[in-house]
């Protein structure tokens, strides 16, 4: 009997994306609200995507089914 298919983790799917070269990107925390008192320099820095650490990337890759 077949075991069935693995499902992609929905929360992970929404939070991470895989680049063409296979790196996993994530958004930085802290840019949703209360931006008034944060400097423009800080909000620009928070806008950039961050490459996920290799140790975390392995776990995320499993959840994404890659």
From TrEMBL:
Chain intervals for the UniProt region annotation (Disordered): 1-53
Q: Where are stretches of biased composition, namely Basic residues?
A: 1-17, 29-45
Known SUPFAM superfamilies for this protein? Answer: L35p-like (SSF143034)
Against Pfam families, the record matches this protein to: Ribosomal_L35p (PF01632)
GO CC entries: ribosome
Which Gene3D superfamilies did the record assign?
A: 4.10.410.60
Q: Which InterPro entries match?
A: Ribosomal_bL35, Ribosomal_bL35-like, Ribosomal_bL35_sf
Name the protein family.
Belongs to the bacterial ribosomal protein bL35 family.
NCBIfam families noted in UniProt: rpmI_bact
* Record protein name field: Large ribosomal subunit protein bL35
Q: What is the lineage of its organism?
A: Bacteria, Bacillati, Actinomycetota, Actinomycetes, Actinomycetales
Q: Which gene encodes it?
A: rpmI
